[in-house]
Predict the structure of Aminopeptidase N.
Amino acid sequence: MSLRAKLTLGTAAAASLLLLAGTATAAQPGAPGIGDPYYPNAGNGGYEVSHYDIRLNYQPASDNLSGTTTILAKATEDLTRFNLDFLLKVGSVRVNNKVAGFTQDGGELVVDPRATLRRGSHVTIVVTYSDVPSTHAVDGYTSWKRTPDGALAIDQPDIAPWWFPSNNHPTDKATFDVSVAVPTGVEVISNGTFAGTAQQINGWTRWRYRSLQPQATYLAFVAIGQFEIRQSTAPNGQPVLNAYSERLGADYSASVASIERTPEVTEYLEGHFGTYPFEAQGGVATPGIGFALENQTRSTYDAAFFRRGANTYVVAHEVAHQWFGDSVSVQGWKDIWLNEGFASYAEWLWSEHVGEGTVQENSDYVYDLYPADSPFWQVLPGDPGAPNQFHSAVYDRGAMTVHALRAAIGEEAFFELLRKWPTENRNGNVSTEEFIAFAEQLSGKQLDELFQTWLFTPGKPAVAPGAEGSFSARAATPEPKAFKKIQETRELLAGHHH
């Protein structure tokens, strides 16, 4: 789903690619989109962001959000103007300390710096704004979630335009400082390291967080309301901050029993994926979102995941995303299986670790679960299309693809791949094509047929991954102990996003 009807640049402006002195190009407006194959107007061209400083005030009673975002960027071409993705009402924009012109339309903030920004130059952009985020919708959908005691800025693929102006695409990551002032007695949770609170003279308290590693804009979040906050130290010495909404009710204890084990799950997954890529750990449990999301360093979970007791499978899924999705992010949204397939496979690894079903048993069970004529097999994980981007096939067939790769290249090469892929691509962006090339180079095997079958061919593959026998001849696998919990997790994770 596109976040916007983007501003169409006039043909005269588009035609400004004129040659100067026969070779150089004239300064021109930055593109209103990065060119993502699913959301071609997401993000913007002409600059790259290195840091966001987001300093806000939020009043839960009115849902009014106001403040200033300062953006540090670098021009990648000579720019006469540029776009930011943003929905809220802007009061002013400054570029390099000078008042800039701006217009807003359809989720685009178009900035005129009134002087050409030269390629390679550092740019400081300061945007002030004040608005009610819950009143804004795109294609009938509002990502900002107002709650009885506050709000949740949490969603995928788009949430940033509801609370800070940005270059809103995973390929432009940045570091973040987030500080939010709220009436004293209200809590604020965000990403990274908790930098403390400061009492203000107006009876408000400012909460501060710092993210030191590059972070995609959709992974930046805030949760505001009445929360119990627990702080501790992980076995690796990192700070852990977990938060539990006071509205969890009967789901409170199961939420705590799950999320407090985040450092244990992280330590286990480090054994497969290599060193945890970030500086802090934690999680947030709250009603009101309907899904879980791998917000960088601090995943957020809907209370429904814990309705039938503790659920460490969803924790394993979201913690795995810290490697697969957060540190190593998609080049384009069509590559989403690289996030969800590996995170789902991590659930199977965790199941085997806790003795509730081997990886093979889980893979076999999912393979048997969907008959050959099921619509499940018509969704292609390698290119599901925007409407099916979070379909269960992206998760489950994606995980089966990972298991088929394991069977094809052998145990030693497979577990080497699990470590090397996130390590060598840390803080980067990757495509499916790059992953296939990486797997072939590491294993020394030609894998086109495997990936074509599992990622790009409609219909049920004739042989289950890692197991012998066709689906028509092989006996069904008994349900692993873990599967009901994993399937509950899957139903909430898949198909929830807009």
Remarks:
- Residues 1-23, 469-474 have pLDDT under 50 and may be disordered.
- Residues 392-409 form the longest helix (18 residues).
- The CA atoms of residues 193 and 210 lie 5 Å apart.
- The chain is about 25% helix and 30% strand.
